[in-house]
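Q: What changes when sodium ion is included in the input?
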Amino acid sequence: AGLSCAEKRGALIVLEGLDRSGKSSQCASLVSFLNKQGISAEAWRFPDRSTAIGSMISSYLSSSADLDDCTVHLLFSANRWEKRSVMEAKLKEGTTLVVDRYSYSGVAFSAAKGLDLNWCKAPDQGLLAADLVLYLNIPPEVAAARGGYGGERYEKMDFQLEVAKYYKKLQDSTWQTIDATKSIEEVQEDIKNASLRIIAECSEGQELLR
Ligand code: T5A
Ligand code: NA
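A: The predicted holo structure follows.
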């Protein structure tokens, strides 16, 4: 069933990129900028570690729990599914969601481990589609130099290089590549401009993709 969206709706804006590319910092500043402009917007993130599924993912990432690759892939996807209806309601009431990682992370990180690309995509089919994906592009060695990687499972240079390859394969017409090696302020300018444009389009009643 389509969403009768003659009314204005919020935009689903996703930030993607390697670990330490600056996603969390940029999500927070974008949301506070939008709110100051009088635009209703919220910061979201995946994994959402606050749920029961999210806490399993969190234990896995900190290496305190071991799960096989397929199992953890499905948990990441389920963690998005459990938030789907709330996200849909927010968007329909006019709130823009600025989301730190989404299905693209799900596919890129699992495929980088060697799982089949199409198998990786399947469980996310039917989730809300992003209106805009801002890809924070950065060489992994530059990202690693930012305070260095912490102890989490995926924070290793060779693995991040592999993830970057899969991100490239996933690019579609909703993507905009942002040079994330620039200063925090310069990156923020690029992100603001792209976001205001898509929010204006969505508020003209563009249908929610699914
Ligand atoms: N994952 C995730 C999957 O495998 N499958 C999935 O489905 C999903 C959703 C956890 C891991 O889970 C994987 C991907 C991840 O490996 P996470 O909790 O989002 O995901 O962890 P990270 O993405 O690793 O979060 P980070 O905090 O490491 O990276 P951010 O958010 O990209 O970077 P940020 O903003 O925290 O900045 C990092 C540092 O750099 C500085 C900041 O001040 C900070 O110190 N910085 C800059 N320095 C210079 N210039 C700039 N332009 C800078 N921007 C930020
Ligand atoms: Na982050």
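Observations recorded in class: The chain has one domain: 12-202.
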